[in-house]
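To the team - uridine-5'-diphosphate-xylopyranose complex, inputs and output below.
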Amino acid sequence: MTAAGFASLGSEVWCVDIDEDKIEQLRRGQSPIYEPGLPELLAKHSARLHFTTDLPDALQGARLLFVAVGTPPTHSGDADLASVHEVVDSMPASDSHALVMKSTVPCGTGASIERVLRERGKDGLSYVSCPEFLKEGSAVADFLHPDRVVIGDGGGWAGDAVAKLYEPLGAPLVRTDVASAEMIKLAANAFLATKISFINEIANVCEQVGADVVQVAKGMGLDERIGPKFLQAGIGYGGSCFTKDVSALKLLAGNSGYHFQLLSAVIEVNELQKRRVVSKLQRHLGELAGKRVALLGLAFKPNTDDMRGASSLVLAARLLAEGVHVRAHDPIAEEQARRLMPELDYAPSALEAVEEADATILVTEWPQFVGIDWRDVAKRMRGRIVIDGRNALDGEAVREAGLTYEGIGRGACRQ
Ligand code: UDX
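Output:
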């Protein structure tokens, strides 16, 4: 996305990867990831995009090297920086190039990379932290209309050059030091995750006291100090970023001698939230063994095929452990899901997934599920229960079809 984005702003961009298949795919004009609008952007600016597995090729053409490699969690939950270090190691000594870190790294990584560069006599290389805030599924719009651009550096030409690159977007710019830029990214993701876990706990209380969390979130969100976004209660946040970064920040704090209590609760609330649907089903259906449950959606959110950290992984595993027959449909993520959950029964459409189901659960709010005709669903199900795991459905329409609607935290709505 970064490459296509900068090409669309007029830069010549060289994309380097060690994965030859990926580079070949990109040369053929295919996007290696599912991201709406990205293939069109790559095609439109193909003349300015160059794909190679050869770093020296790119070094000849470009001065700023944006590092966008994976930093997955290790067994300890810390970020695995092996790929970042491979990139650093492959850089030659140069006074005219800069490493610009897009990958999410723990606070302190920039300082340790600068130390390594000094030790290896490569201290002519500049280092800039430029964290990425775009969301999967809306990456194109997020790149072109960012809320802000954050640039952390120690002074010198490279930070200014990165700022110039982003200038056409007219976004507010935060110029700061490297450590603060690294921290902004982790803190922003952790705060958003905290907002979600908070509203999920409010939802759970709403169920106890007969309030409707959708109304509560609306009333809260109109307070400008709170804001309406990321207050949608549901069956927990997923995705690689929130799960990875919240845990990385918690461990970063711990490793530096501070116990970040709040984040422990954010993580625990989220894990429990993924399982809450199981007790809802038990309340409606009693013993779950032998029951048939349909899952609508598997991806961690709509408009992506990404299954990393998806709530469906935990929910499906829990249902299978209870002896439930789980039949699922996802419009895009099925291939990825099959690799992770080969034991699920996959249906080619939503209506086939709900066939003979005792209960249907909306797991991912794909538009085609939100807009489904619930009378068709009712005709095919053998039971009546519809659980809206994302509070995205029109509960009235579900009820009018003769089904029993239950959302997350919608106590008043249920009455
Ligand atoms: C996130 C950050 O938003 C982005 O800034 C960062 O660069 C990468 O991580 P992403 O993981 O793509 O982006 O998805 P996001 O839209 O933030 O959603 C994450 C998860 O939270 C999804 O599972 C979503 O369903 C859930 N969510 C989001 C809620 O449960 N409630 C909400 O109100 C919002």
